[in-house]
């Protein structure tokens, strides 16, 4: 790990703690009598349970990882006699950074002497590809340590203490992780497993069901969102945010929280510990939100059905390109290579064009997404051609070539050549290869991307069917009130497949393209102008994996 990478990893911990930190009571004029207990009852019950193996299914955003897991880990590791090492396993760097920061915070509050947070890389092999996984550690005066590890079964090997498997429903190899952790019991260790549900057929739900039925003799805790609110969650939120608590405000809070989900079934799974029937969503909301950053731009262009016969439709579309799209493209840093993926739609579904960019050591991000609804074929071709000719250092683009998209994809291929464009006839086999790689990028924190509800809902439309990712037949309502069918998820996986494509560097290949192929009837000054935009220099904003609490 380079000094820069180490600094960035440690800065992530600090940033997450700033977001999660509270305030001293005396600094806000609040007496300690107003806070009778730091921990809420469901967090206390977890601390009181000294069972060797515990499992908890819970609602999201109830402070369980903070008050139940991190607080307990700091206390247990602090005991020289009867304490033990703590090994936390989430499934991405943001979770690890959040947990280790919470443990350090509790150690400070409990007046426990501990070291500064250490960070390093572990090299692991996933699907025959090498990955460097970030691991955090703090050492306590007791001689014990707390480590936050990657979600790899072999990481338990050679260790002894308390294994903590967080968000277990979203681990790809949960059975192997749990089996490896069970060896801790031999020498007096403990195992804690917890998280939100991810489908009725998930390994996590099976472990919970076996515990509830008595097949497994583990200790079971269940904390629904409604349970947490009843035990004081919203009152604590009001206390921290300095709002007045009322029954009406609490009811509104519950209603608003549930309404954020696209369906009652989704809300029940995420909040009330009721797993979805049948297949599970391939991308969890938690995973998608962990990789979201605020500065990714989304632009939409839609027209009524009669626009197809408008004699000035190309001129109108070019004006939209000049005035709306071009300024956004000019904001993309010009010195780093870009890739793109497009899922094609005409009238029923959206056309979604997603741009990805590699920002040196900061990893991949998605600076721009273009969504076209009910746009005629020739206008779509005009927009996509402009994008292909104006994106900075275009490395590769992949196009959905099924159905009506085939002609569109072929035009892009003819424009830039096979080095730069692939027409993809997506199939089950193609999904089997590329969706797992795309999913792994989220798990490893390799990609920072959109956090809007349309993007999240589209990715939640990817479901597991007999263990393999497929697009659900269900449709969801988008932010514009119209139907969506996972369009952005398909565009996203195409973009990521393009990012992994090994082709000649963008500056190393001459492409025989005709820059006058598509010209607007007038440029910004009113004269005819080719579809090229000036690539302006600009500063690269530093990207961060801004993890959220869970």
What does this structure look like?
- It is a single chain.
- The protein is α/β, with parallel strands linked by helices.
- The protein folds into two domains: about 5-20 and about 40-230, 3-Layer(aba) Sandwich (Rossmann fold); about 285-505, Nucleotidyltransferase, domain 5.
- The chain has 17 helices and 21 strands.
- The chain has helices spanning about 5-20, 40-50, 65-80, 95-110, 175-180, 205-215, 225-230, 235-240, 245-260, 265-270, 285-290, 315-330, 375-390, 405-415, 430-445, 455-460, 485-500; strands at about 55-60, 85-90, 120-125, 130-140, 145-150, 160-165, 190-195, 220-225, 295-300, 340-345, 350-360, 365-375, 395-400, 420-425, 445-450, 460-465, 470, 475, 485, 520, 530.
- Strands 3-4-5-2-6-7-1-8 form an eight-stranded mixed beta sheet, with helices on both faces. Strands 9, 10, 11, 12, 13, 14 and 15 form a seven-stranded mixed beta sheet that branches. Strands 16-17 form a two-stranded antiparallel ribbon.
- Helix 2 (about 40-50) runs parallel beside helix 3 (about 65-80) and helix 16 packs across helix 17 (about 485-500).
- It is globular and about 80 Å long.
């Amino acid at each position: 790990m380079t000094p820069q990478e180490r600094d960035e990893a440690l800065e992530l911990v600090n940033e997450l703690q700033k977001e999660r930190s509270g305030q001293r009571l005396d600094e806000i004029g609040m007496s300690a009598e107003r806070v009778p207990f730091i921990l809420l009852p469901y967090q206390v019950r977890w601390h009181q349970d000294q069972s060797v193996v515990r499992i908890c299914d819970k609602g999201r955003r109830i402070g369980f990882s903070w008050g139940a897991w991190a607080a307990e880990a700091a206390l247990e590791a602090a005991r020289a006699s009867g304490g033990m090492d703590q090994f936390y396993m989430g499934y991405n760097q943001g979770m690890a950074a959040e947990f280790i920061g919470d443990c350090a915070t509790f150690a400070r509050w409990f007046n426990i002497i501990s070291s500064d947070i250490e960070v390093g890389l572990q090299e692991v092999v996933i699907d025959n590809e090498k990955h460097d996984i970030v691991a955090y550690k703090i050492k306590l005066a007791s001689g014990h340590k707390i480590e936050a590890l990657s979600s790899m079964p072999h990481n338990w090997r050679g260790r002894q203490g308390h294994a903590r498997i967080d968000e277990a429903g979203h681990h790809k190899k949960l059975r192997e992780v749990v089996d490896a952790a069970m060896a801790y019991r031999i020498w007096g260790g403990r195992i804690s497993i917890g998280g939100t549900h991810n489908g009725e057929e998930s390994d996590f739900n099976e472990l919970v069901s076996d515990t509830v039925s008595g097949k497994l003799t583990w200790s079971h805790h269940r904390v629904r969102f409604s349970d947490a609110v009843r035990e004081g969650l919203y009152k604590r939120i009001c206390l921290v945010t300095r709002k007045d608590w009322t029954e009406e405000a609490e009811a509104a809070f519950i209603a608003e929280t549930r309404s954020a989900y696209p369906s009652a079934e989704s809300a029940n799974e995420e909040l009330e510990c009721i797993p979805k029937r049948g297949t599970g969503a391939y991308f969890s909301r938690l995973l998608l939100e962990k990789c979201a950053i605020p500065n990714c731009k989304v632009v939409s262009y839609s027209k009524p059905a009669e626009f197809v016969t408008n004699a000035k439709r190309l001129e109108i579309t070019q004006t939209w390109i000049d005035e709306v799209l071009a300024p956004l493209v000019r904001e993309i840093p010009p010195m780093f290579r870009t890739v793109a993926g497009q899922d094609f739609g005409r009238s029923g579904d959206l056309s979604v064009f997603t741009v990805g960019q590699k920002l040196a050591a900061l990893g991949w991000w998605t600076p721009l997404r273009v969504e076209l609804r009910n746009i005629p074929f020739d206008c779509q071709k005009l927009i996509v051609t402009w994008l292909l000719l104006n994106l900075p250092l275009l490395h590769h683009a992949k196009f959905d070539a099924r159905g009506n998209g085939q002609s569109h994809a072929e035009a892009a291929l003819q424009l830039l050549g096979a080095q730069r464009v692939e027409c993809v006839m997506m199939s089950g086999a193609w999904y089997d290869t590329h969706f797992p790689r795309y999913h792994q990028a989220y798990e490893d924190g390799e990609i920072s991307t959109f956090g809007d509800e349309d993007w999240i809902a589209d990715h939640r439309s990817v479901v597991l069917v007999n263990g393999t990712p497929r697009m659900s037949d269900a449709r969801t309502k988008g932010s514009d009130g119209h139907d969506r069918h996972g369009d952005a998820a398909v565009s996203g996986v195409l973009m990521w497949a393009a990012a992994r494509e090994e082709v000649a560097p963008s500056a190393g290949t001459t492409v025989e393209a005709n820059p006058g192929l598509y010209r607007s009837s007038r440029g910004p000054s009113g004269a005819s102008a080719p579809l090229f935009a000036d690539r302006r220099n600009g500063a690269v904003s530093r990207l961060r994996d801004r993890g959220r609490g869970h």
